[in-house]
Design a protein that fits this description.
Blueprint: H1 19-43, E1 99-102, H2 113-121, E2 127-130, H3 139-157, E3 162-167, H4 169-180, E4 187-193, H5 210-214, H6 220-224, E5 235-241, E6 261-268, H7 279-290, E7 298-303
Parallel strand pairs: 1-2, 1-3, 3-4, 4-5, 5-6, 6-7
Helix pairs in contact: 2-7, 3-4
């Protein structure tokens, strides 16, 4: 097992917990889940309206810094023309590509308030929180809509690529876009938080909703994601928790695909709802976005208790 280069040494090695300690950890994680849920209910209404886009600044001349070479045109698809009446933001001073934040089932962009604040504090200028309708019934349709949003973001910001952070169902939608709809040409890094990559067996009563049925083990979209994906360019980092009671079994939140450059990061001490709001996870997400190293066949652990 490889250690994650961006994690503190004390957080890198998993430590088996005795049964008594595990039960205590589960109780603590459950209490935290209830607290997160209560807080999220309060701020949920603030995330219902779509995000207000900042007015674009006039584009400045694009120059190559002294001593640097321009990237080859074949490295990424050309940026689509900006929408009529919109100016492209200058990118010469931008260290990071835009980050797209995609929420989970019957949620909205408010779930990313703390993560967004963490990234903004560390220099990310282009942060986009997207809402999709709770009436969305098909992962494929949502992935196509995400693709259109990504193209618009690239056109508006002048960047050729974006990074995506998806919680739960949001990560599955983003992975479908990357792996099945050619989104690897636009997405540099996809980070998922508690996403049912292998499907989940939980909440049978919720299966009345079509998109919940698509998250279940053996569904058509899950099986499509098992198909070969040779040459996929996107880096994947999947955060999962052994105390996640929404993803069953919890290991189904790991990415296991021979063609993907993927890292699975085990989070200890918290559950499903806390993944997008916990400071330790936010710090690890930020460092994963900053990393330029290949992630293939790497795993790791962070302590969030």
């Amino acid at each position: 097992m490889k250690d994650l280069p961006f994690l503190p040494p004390l957080l890198r090695r998993p430590c088996p917990l005795p049964t008594v300690q595990l039960s205590a950890a589960l109780l603590k994680a459950t209490a935290l889940e209830l607290a997160v849920l209560a807080g999220h209910v309060l701020i949920y209404p603030t995330g219902i309206p779509g995000e207000r886009r900042a007015a674009p600044r006039p584009a400045g001349p694009q120059t190559t810094p002294p001593g640097a070479t321009a990237p080859p045109e074949a490295a990424a698809p050309p940026v689509a023309p900006a929408p009529a009446g919109a100016s492209v933001l200058p990118t010469e001073d931008d260290e990071h590509p835009p980050v797209v934040l995609l929420h989970g089932f019957i949620d909205n962009r408010s779930v990313f308030v703390l993560l967004r604040r963490c990234l903004a504090r560390h220099g990310w200028r282009h942060l986009e929180s997207l809402n999709y309708s709770p009436l969305t019934c098909d992962i494929r349709t949502a992935a196509e809509l995400l693709g259109r949003h990504v193209e618009e973001i690239c056109a508006r910001t002048g960047h050729r690529e974006v990074d995506i952070v998806g919680h739960s169902l949001g990560g599955l939608i983003a992975r479908y876009y990357v792996q099945r709809l050619g989104g690897d040409q636009r997405v540099r890094t996809l980070i998922t938080l508690g996403t049912p990559h292998g499907g989940t067996a939980v909440a049978p009563l919720a299966s009345a909703h079509p998109i919940v049925r698509q998250m279940r083990t053996g569904s058509a979209p899950i099986e499509e994601l098992r198909r070969p994906a040779p040459g996929c360019r996107t880096r994947f980092v999947s955060f999962w928790s052994e105390l996640d009671r929404v993803i069953v079994p919890a290991e189904a939140a790991c990415i296991d695909h021979p063609d993907l450059d993927a890292r699975n990061v085990r989070v200890t001490g918290i559950g499903h709802l806390a993944l997008p709001v916990h400071p330790a996870v936010a710090a690890a997400v930020r460092q994963a976005l900053e990393s330029r190293e290949p992630t293939a066949e790497a795993t790791g652990t962070i302590g969030a208790a």
